[in-house]
């Protein structure tokens, strides 16, 4: 058993993707904009200006709180968090202190097919500070980001390993994307994370002073920094020098280590007090119910459903669920295949339902394999889903041709490439035009078989003398003769008939 237990908690800031900023009407889309062009007297903190709350930011914050299973406060309030820094023109940040938007939630995460729950302490809304850009010995400030809506999520100290913390963040990113509230790109700073870590002797129930790690710009950085800190603190405990004070350390990506920064301000240092310029934040029943109705199926639920509905493996289901657009595409293809089974067979719906139940797992596996290996293999690196032109309906038809063995898989690949290039989008039509349909016609196949038998008398004698393994050789020759289009099962049947006659 390990000597120490690791205790990790996360504080996460998520930038919301609203049209305008948190408390003014400036554009919130700062990507590729010249510095200090998205500013106004409100977000620059000019005296005499008044903030107004962005309703859409509240709605998005509420969606996050609901997705994290939090209790939502019908009434919360905004507070001023006072500190002095060049990126904060008002001299305070409007945040929420003792009455946050929501509290006491949880999120279920899954690692290696095992699920467990991570507690959420609180979810609150606030505005972002501006961005300091250090260049040489100067610091420049870009105020475009100042006033961007943020949702801050504080977890309970429920993580026992750095990997769990990383997995949680990755799931949170996916949830933000499913909710449509943020791109949650860590590299672009949409999702920012500070991690708190402390150790304690195994079996001890006390909490010891924690270390807060800042400057974590990627999921990898979160995991590596926590691993580093876990090791550093283990050595301190071993030497009898466990941390006695709360400390802030920064992650140095290049050196791969954490460095001491400063001892952390307590909340008293921020002199929080209620924001006098904003009324209390009231979430009325209608607003609450509308947000709840907007909640989509969340990634983990979707993954579980795909596994249950189509017998996909956990791994395959995650590949789809991790890419929301492709998960949607896959499900559309499946619903078109279902329609195909119902329509093509022209039978009563009870019988068609049974047939669908029998075939859907195989069809799902086929569709998944073709999406994940063939389609993904064709996508350029700068691919955007909106550029993808093959309709689910046409792709489903391609799957049905393969499933019914009307084409073989190399013909399928040729057809898919044509569809991908946008030359033609109807797979049956392409198969006909390029003469790729499988040959099932018995008399055509018999002619091919006869030709092969006639031109290989020695092998025929050996086969008839008992060398059964030669069957593969004959089938191969017929396939070659037919340019790969002969139905191999039919060919083997005919060969057996003729050779054993
Ligand atoms: Zn503004
Ligand atoms: Mn904050």
What does this structure look like?
The protein has 501 residues and is α+β, with helices and mostly antiparallel strands. The chain is 42% helix and 20% strand. It is built from 15 helices and 16 strands. A nine-stranded mixed sheet has the order 2-6-7-10-1-11-12-13-14. A three-stranded antiparallel sheet has the order 5-4-15, with no helix packed on it. A hairpin with a 4-residue loop joins strand 13 (247-252) and strand 14 (257-262). Helix 6 (314-321) crosses helix 7.
List the defining traits of the structure above.
binds zinc ion; 501 residues; nine-stranded mixed β-sheet; three-stranded antiparallel β-sheet; alpha+beta; 20% strand; 42% helix; binds manganese (II) ion
Task: Work out the radius of gyration.
Answer: 31 Å
| Unreliable spans | none
Average pLDDT rating? 94
- Report the sheet with the most strands, covering strand number, pairing sense and barrel closure: 9 strands, mixed
Number of helices: 15
Helicity level: 40-55%
The percent range for strand residues is 15-25%
Cα-to-Cα separation, first versus last residue: 72 Å
Present the secondary structure layout.
Blueprint: E1 4-15, H1 55-67, E2 71-72, E3 75-76, E4 79-82, E5 92-95, E6 102-111, E7 114-127, E8 131-135, E9 138-142, E10 149-155, H2 162-179, E11 191-201, E12 211-216, H3 219-238, E13 247-252, E14 257-262, E15 273-274, E16 281-282, H4 285-294, H5 299-310, H6 314-321, H7 324-344, H8 349-378, H9 392-403, H10 409-421, H11 427-433, H12 442-455, H13 457-464, H14 470-481, H15 488-499
Parallel strand pairs: 12-13
Antiparallel strand pairs: 1-10, 1-11, 2-6, 3-16, 4-5, 4-15, 6-7, 7-10, 8-9, 11-12, 13-14
Helix pairs in contact: 1-4, 2-3, 5-6, 6-7, 7-8, 7-9, 8-9, 9-10, 12-14, 12-15, 14-15
The protein binds zinc ion and manganese (II) ion (MN).
Residues 13, 95, 126, 152 line the site of manganese (II) ion (MN).
């Amino acid at each position: 058993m390990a000597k120490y237990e690791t205790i990790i908690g996360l504080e996460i800031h998520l930038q919301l993707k609203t049209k305008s900023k948190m408390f003014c009407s400036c554009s919130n889309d700062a990507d590729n904009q010249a510095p200090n062009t998205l500013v106004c007297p409100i977000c620059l903190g000019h005296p005499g200006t008044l903030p107004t709350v962005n309703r859409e930011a509240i709605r998005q914050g509420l969606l996050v709180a609901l997705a994290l299973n939090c209790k939502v406060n019908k009434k919360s309030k905004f507070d001023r968090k006072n500190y002095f820094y060049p990126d904060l023109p008002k001299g305070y940040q409007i945040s929420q202190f003792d009455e946050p938007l929501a509290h006491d939630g949880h999120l279920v995460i899954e690692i290696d097919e095992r699920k467990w729950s991570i507690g959420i302490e609180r979810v609150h809304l606030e505005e972002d500070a501006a961005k300091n850009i250090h260049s040489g010995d100067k610091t420049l400030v870009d105020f475009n980001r100042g006033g961007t809506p943020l949702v801050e999520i504080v977890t309970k100290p429920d993580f026992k390993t750095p990997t769990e913390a990383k997995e949680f963040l990755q799931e949170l990113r996916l949830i933000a994307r499913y909710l449509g509230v943020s791109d949650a790109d860590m590299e672009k700073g949409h999702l920012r994370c500070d991690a708190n870590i402390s150790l304690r002797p195994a079996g001890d129930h006390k909490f010891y002073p924690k270390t807060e790690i800042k400057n974590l710009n990627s999921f990898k950085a979160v995991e590596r920094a926590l691993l580093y800190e876990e090791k550093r603190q283990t050595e301190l405990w071993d030497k009898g020098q466990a941390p006695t004070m709360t400390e802030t350390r920064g992650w140095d990506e290049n050196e791969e280590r954490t460095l001491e920064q400063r001892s952390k301000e307590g909340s008293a240092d921020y002199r929080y007090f209620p924001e006098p310029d904003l009324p209390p934040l009231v979430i009325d029943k209608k607003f609450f119910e509308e947000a709840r109705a907007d909640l989509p199926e969340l990634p983990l639920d979707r993954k579980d459903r795909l596994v249950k509905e189509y017998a996909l493996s956990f791994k395959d289901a995650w590949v789809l669920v991790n890419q929301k657009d492709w998960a949607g595409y896959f499900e559309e293809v499946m619903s078109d295949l279902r329609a195909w089974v119902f329509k093509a067979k022209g039978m009563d719906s009870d019988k068609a339902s049974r047939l669908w139940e029998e075939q859907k797992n195989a069809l799902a596996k086929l569709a998944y394999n073709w999406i994940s290996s063939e389609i993904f293999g064709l996508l350029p690196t700068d691919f955007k889903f909106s550029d993808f032109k093959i309709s689910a309906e046409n792709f489903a038809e391609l799957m049905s041709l393969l499933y019914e063995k009307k084409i073989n898989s190399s013909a399928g690949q040729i057809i898919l490439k044509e569809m991908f290039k946008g030359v033609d989008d109807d797979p049956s039509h392409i198969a006909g035009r390029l003469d790729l349909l499988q040959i099932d016609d018995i008399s055509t196949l018999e002619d091919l078989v006869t030709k092969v038998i006639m031109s290989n008398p020695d092998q025929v004698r050996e086969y008839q003398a008992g060398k059964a393994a030669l069957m593969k050789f004959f089938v191969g020759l017929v396939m070659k003769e037919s340019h790969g289009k002969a139905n191999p099962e039919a060919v083997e049947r005919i060969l057996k008939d003729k050779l054993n006659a």
